[in-house]
Amino acid sequence: MNSAEGTTLRGKVAVITGAGRGIGRAIALAYAKAGADVVCSARSGREIDETVALITAQGGRAIAITSDVTNYESVEALFSGAVQAFDGVDIVLANAGVGTVTGTVEHSDPKRWKEVIDVNLVGAFHTARAAIPHLRRSGAGKLILMGSGLRQRPNANLSAYGCSKAGMWLLTQTLALELLDANISVNELIPGPVRTAMTDFGDKCQFNEEWLKEPEDVVPLALFLASQPDVGPSAQSFSLMRRA
Ligand SMILES: NC(=O)c1ccc[n+]([C@@H]2O[C@H](COP(=O)([O-])OP(=O)(O)OC[C@H]3O[C@@H](n4cnc5c(N)ncnc54)[C@H](OP(=O)(O)O)[C@@H]3O)[C@@H](O)[C@H]2O)c1
Which InterPro entries match (predicted)? Predict the structure, then answer.
């Protein structure tokens, strides 16, 4: 069983970046199933419209708002749209990301390297920055940053990705410290390898013996983090990895 039966997010509003496919879509469907109103965001309108259609088909409530997390004004507009539609924000999943293999540092294209940092790290900062005033207004909230196990060890050819996720982990802890008094919990979710468009490397297996998941396998932990009490764990990293 993949969903955490009995978890309720009724009365909560969740904003999810990168909700058009993969892990973000699976979590959007699960949060809606648990009763949350869900705002699905990504750059591709077609993909988030599909996520919303799937949620509506299962009896949930959701809207799609296109946004590019590298553009702060666009992320601010996402949160204004969410509040306009559902009257507040309680749960934010900063999930939008790219997994570009940039090559060795020596051979990487500086522009592509910076793009990874811009989407993953600056995008998460933009998302948190734009969300915080709305979470404060709600009196409590959950901010979940989608991390990666690749942040904790060097990986040849993936320096931009690893550095972006290492930065996101420090951002998670810093936000948690800054928002402790506002009952806004900030935690990192590390999914471990998941079969998505990002990890579609054809025949080449990059993950050795690690548990290769489907996006739905990330759902129970995402529900757990979204449904903790107002005074609950913060500045913590929760991982679905099965090895150090
Ligand atoms: N799959 C894994 O094994 C794995 C492991 C560890 C961590 N993660 C993390 O999990 C998250 C989701 O990854 P995934 O595997 O589900 O990848 P995915 O299937 O490629 O989905 C990525 C999502 O992010 C959106 N996105 C990308 N750039 C964006 C931008 N500039 N602004 C707004 N949205 C943007 C994409 O939509 P558009 O392109 O339409 O914008 C898409 O909806 C990422 O943060 C990734 O680093 C994944």
Answer: NAD(P)-bd_dom_sf, Sc_DH/Rdtase_CS, SDR_fam
For domain 13-239, give the CATH superfamily.
NAD(P)-binding Rossmann-like Domain (3.40.50.720)
| Pocket perturbation via mutation, ligand 1, pick of 43, 72, 79, 119 by most ligand atoms within 8 A of CB | 43
In this structure, the number of other CB atoms found within 10 A of the CB of residue 36 comes to 28
**Which residues are catalytic, by number?**
161
156 lines ligand 1 (CB under 6 A): no
Which tens digits make up the pLDDT trace of 69-113?
A: 999 999 999 999 999 999 999 999 999 999 999 999 999 999 999
- Closest-lying ligand 1 atom to the alpha carbon of residue 69: 32
